[in-house]
Write a structure and sequence with these properties.
The protein is of the alpha+beta class. It is built from 3 helices and 3 strands; from the N terminus they run H-H-E-E-H-E. The protein has a 3-stranded antiparallel sheet with strand order 1-2-3, covered by helices on one side. 14% of the residues are buried.
Length: 151
């Protein structure tokens, strides 16, 4: 009988130890999560904005190429600008600056289309990196330039 009582009290102590250990590990997990969460969010924000910036660069480059092609076949400047706006896709055309050079020139000369787009972040990555580093992360200006020979 004494043996059973010792075993029962040992099991209760073991259970108490397990509960105590579990509670201390739950607190440790919470602390670790709170240390890792800002880094993971920063990586997520950077991934989202980098993807958007890369897509914007691709669209602006394509629009410059399409505008230069329209200008190289002697289309008027209004049609060249319309072609650039058509190929912008979902980008805001009010943030786009278009500079056309030698649109109605003589055949054999080059026509140049220069586009600049004021990119805006959608995540707070600029503010976060500015806070952490003490500097500023200015919003980038994405540009593309294309030249083609007039036909």
């Amino acid at each position: 009988m004494v043996w059973l009582l010792r075993k029962a009290s040992a099991g209760a102590n073991n259970l108490r130890e397990r509960v105590r250990t579990w509670r201390s590990e739950a607190g440790q997990s919470l602390v670790e999560f709170s240390l890792v969460l800002p880094i993971m969010l920063l990586l997520l924000f950077a991934l989202v904005d980098f993807g958007r910036a890369f897509h914007t660069w691709l669209v602006v480059t394509n629009s410059a190429r399409e505008g230069a092609r329209a200008a190289s076949v002697q289309k008027p400047e209004s049609e060249v600008r319309a072609r650039i706006d058509e190929t912008l896709g979902g980008l805001d055309s009010s943030k786009l600056t278009v500079q056309l050079t030698n649109v109605q020139g003589t055949r054999g000369q080059t026509v140049e289309v220069d586009l600049t787009y004021d990119f805006q972040y959608v995540t707070p990555i600029g503010g976060i990196l500015g806070f952490v580093s003490g500097g500023t992360l200015a919003t980038p200006t994405i540009g593309a330039s294309t030249s083609m020979r007039l036909e």
